[in-house]
Design goal:
Elements: H1 3-10, E1 13-27, E2 34-38, H2 48-55, E3 59-63, E4 70-71, H3 74-77, E5 80-85, E6 88-93, H4 98-108, E7 111-116, H5 123-134, H6 140-147, E8 158-161, E9 171-172, E10 177-178, H7 200-216, E11 223-229, H8 236-243, E12 249-254, H9 263-272, H10 280-294, E13 301-307, H11 319-340, E14 344-348, E15 363-364, E16 369-370, H12 372-381, E17 385-393, E18 402-409, E19 414-421, E20 428-435, E21 443-450, E22 466-472, E23 477-482, E24 486-493, H13 500-503, E25 507-512, E26 520-526, E27 530-537, E28 543-552, E29 555-561, E30 567-575, E31 578-586
Parallel strand pairs: 1-20, 2-3, 2-14, 3-7, 7-8, 8-11, 11-12, 12-13, 13-14
Antiparallel strand pairs: 1-17, 4-5, 5-6, 9-10, 15-16, 17-18, 18-19, 19-24, 20-23, 21-22, 21-24, 25-26, 26-29, 27-28, 27-30, 30-31
């Protein structure tokens, strides 16, 4: 520990944190630890894959604005971008296409999410993309993939329908172009005079056409993500009212910072919002309210597909923000997303390959080195949980205070507490009190990320995650000092096991609509990896169908089931010693 840190620790201010072990907020979902970048980004530079794997990103979304200008099959299937630049369309050939991206995801251990081009309004072109990735060698594009050296299907499950349709028609002065002005026009016919734009009504029809074509092209079930919105949630009403049955996810993006703000204001944005963006909790609630109102009862999942925490286009390059401070911001946002039980999120971005610029990605472009955001992602991902529980700090001053979040571990024998100290000058010596927990070992473990070194690469402001070892504590209380501008994770043993109230939330099963005249939509989730069986029973308790019988991972998943005849049925979900049953009436 350096002398600077010792000085601040000796001047620590008092604080209190309360962790309520019996107050469950939501299932813990690791899929909020996703990332993304532009679909035409080459991530083949040496070391990018190893840092991506080290960070533990769970999903990589290949999309961005580039997805609406991207021809996936051109340039010998390495991809080509038709980029509007002032009054010219620039054609850019790439050296890194879908084959390389899927291989990258496999190395990293992340699930790919691929966004197809919807500016073309060509569902057949999108279906061919799906067939190339998922089709076997008896299909045309599956055969081409095999000829190119990839005989086994990629089985890409997540597919996004374009990117940020709500910015169509907006003028972007930095590029001298109006976004998405070529709607329904083939690449070969693009002109600087084009002024054809998608609107909410035409996009609702597009969802239906694309979904039908893409699902038909895949031998495995795929999940459709649409619409994709930069922030205009008014698009949800027409899109969902007409097309909710055709999608599985809704994708919203957030741009909290577009101008020059103080660090305090930016760090406070998840709680207070900015003039450009709502507080993250309010934004998620608004989107969920729209889904509930216009989604027809369909259990649609919500994805924060681009959380643009690093972008600030109106100020000079700020390496302290990009390299280090954005990691604190990211930790705070992830805490809010966990509390909200969000099904998935992708920080923007993992890597941009800008050709020497430092950019804002969590893997730095000009030196291929990890920034604080990547270390925070790893810190949380290394300590997954089952249920998110309530944690409260008495120093909640947004942008300069102490933020706390907590969750039960997978085994229920430990509680993890994530603490973000946003204050640049003050260390807090906090008394952390736990309810519904008894620690007979009277020790706890701690890990922290601090601004403990130079902003120059490869450190970028931090040496990474520092393990602080085992420390003494009481049966249900500990005292820990949180340095200025730091992210800390505490792990407290629970000798009594997870309270029964928490364990009862281990499984989730729903069936809709009830009654049903055709197909039953089933949503299930588990809080930890386990073997799951979902069966259909008749009124006498006899098993008439096996709906799902396989290993399952944490998260929410959708199935559909259609019985052979009308009647009353029971859907039963079993995992370990736990069981959940739901009644279904078929007309």
């Amino acid at each position: 520990m350096n002398l600077f840190a010792i000085f601040f620790l000796s001047q620590a201010a008092p604080a209190n944190i309360w962790v309520f072990g019996d107050s469950v907020l939501a299932p813990f979902n690791l899929d909020v630890l996703g990332s993304g970048t532009e679909i035409n980004t080459d991530m083949g530079d040496q070391g990018v894959d190893s840092l991506g794997k080290l960070s533990g990103t769970k999903i990589i979304r290949m999309g961005g604005i580039a997805s609406e200008y991207y021809a996936w099959d051109q340039n010998n299937f390495l991809g080509r971008t038709y980029f509007d630049w002032f009054d010219t369309t620039i054609v850019i050939n790439h050296d890194w296409g879908v084959d390389q991206f899927v291989a990258f995801c496999k190395k990293v251990g992340a699930e790919p999410l691929i966004c197809v081009n919807t500016q073309l309004n060509d569902p057949g072109y999108a279906a061919n993309f799906v067939q190339y990735c998922n089709g076997d060698t008896s299909t045309y594009y599956g055969w081409i993939r095999a000829v190119r050296g990839h005989p086994e299907p990629y089985n890409v499950r997540y597919w996004g329908l374009g990117n940020e349709q709500d910015i169509a028609g907006n003028y972007f002065p930095a590029w001298g172009t109006t976004f998405y002005r070529h709607f329904g026009i083939p690449f070969a016919n693009w002109s600087k005079l084009d002024s054809s734009f998608v609107n909410p009504t035409s996009y609702a029809q597009l969802i239906r056409d694309y979904s039908d074509s893409m699902r038909a092209a895949s031998p495995i079930p795929i999940e459709i993500v649409a619409p994709s919105l930069a922030g205009n949630l008014a698009w949800l009403r027409p899109a969902l009212s007409a097309s909710a049955d055709y999608i599985d996810w809704v994708d919203i993006h957030q741009y909290p910072v577009w101008g020059e703000l103080s660090y305090d204001q930016i760090l406070a944005a998840p709680d207070t919002g900015t003039i450009w963006s709502l507080p993250v909790d309010h934004y998620i609630k608004n989107a969920r309210d729209s889904i509930a109102m216009f989604g027809g009862g369909r259990p649609l999942k919500l994805l924060l597909g681009e959380f643009n925490s690093g972008i600030d286009l109106d100020t000079p390059i700020d390496m302290f923000w990009w390299n280090y401070l954005v990691g604190l911001y990211y930790a705070d946002v992830i805490g809010h997303l966990l509390n909200a039980g969000l099904e998935g999120a992708c920080v923007y971005s993992i890597y941009n390959n800008t050709g020497g610029l430092p950019e804002f990605n969590y893997i730095r472009d000009d030196t291929v080195s990890m920034r604080a955001t990547g270390w925070v992602m790893k810190l949380i991902g290394d300590h997954p949980g089952t249920q998110v529980i309530k944690a409260v700090s008495d120093k909640p001053d947004p942008g300069r205070g102490l933020e706390a979040f907590a969750w039960w571990s997978y085994e229920g024998t430990e509680v993890c507490v994530l603490v973000v100290n946003q204050n640049p000058d003050t260390a807090y010596e906090a008394v952390v009190r736990f309810s519904y927990l008894t620690n007979h070992s009277k020790t706890y473990e701690a890990w922290q990320i601090t601004n403990d070194t130079t902003l120059a690469a490869p450190y970028n402001g931090t040496k990474g995650i520092e393990y602080l070892g085992e420390n003494s504590c009481g049966y249900d209380t500990l005292v820990h000092t949180f340095p200025p501008y730091s992210v800390t994770l505490l792990l407290m043993e629970n000798s009594t096991g997870v309270p029964e109230k928490s364990s009862n939330l281990r499984l989730f099963l729903s069936a809709s609509p009830v009654p049903s005249g055709d197909m039953v939509n089933i949503t299930y989730s588990v809080s930890s990896p386990c073997y799951v069986r979902i069966t259909a029973l008749d009124v006498a308790g006899r098993v008439i169908d096996f709906i799902f019988d396989a290993d399952a991972k944490p998260g929410r998943f959708n199935l559909s089931w259609k019985p052979k005849r009308p009647g009353v049925y029971y859907l039963q979900m079993n995992a370990g010693e736990e069981s959940v049953t739901r009644k279904v009436i078929m007309r």
